[in-house]
Design brief:
By secondary structure, the protein is an alpha/beta fold. It is about 35% helix and about 15% strand. α2 (about 30-40) crosses α3 and α4 (about 135-145) crosses α5.
Length: about 210
Amino acid sequence: MKTNVLTLDAKKAGDIDLDEAIFGVTPRADILHRVINWQLAKRRSGTHAVQFRSDVSRTGARFGRQKGGGTARHGARSTNIFVGGGRAFGPIPRDHGFDLPKKIRKLGLKNALSSKQANGKLIVVDTAELKDGKTKELVAKLEKLGLANALFVDGAEVNANFKQAVQNIPNVDVLPSQGANVYDIIRRDTLVLTKAAVAKLQERLK
């Protein structure tokens, strides 16, 4: 499929062929859901913890009378029924990550790219470069393109000035092609690819 190539000033700079097998896949919500869940689970720290009965330092001597007190015969104060005692069934440090087949991960990225293309939310620009790393300059260019919430994906490396300018703009991110992922593509309204990014992604997803 052919699509227009624009400059950052929103002027036409030719066109480019997009691979149907990558940008023309019928989007599947279940695949996107699986991949996003896998991504978010993998990045969880899993450091949540509580003190269990064995972690609490409290007396083990029985208190109160054996009979006649009107209460149960208690021993250790470290049990979970007492204030200051250990927790029962609390969270422990663990890894939340799980395995996901490479084929599903690859299909998820194809689905994300195809979803943006199908919804008219995919823009291809010739380059993502700035002479100076000025946020004001980039904001003006984004207004011309009609972008307020977007993810830019460049080639192997991101232009240093462009990256510097993007850092101060909310809801606009930039990634190299190797860092392109389903979660970041879906969470932004518009996906902007450079010609170098299209070439790299098509090579990666063949």
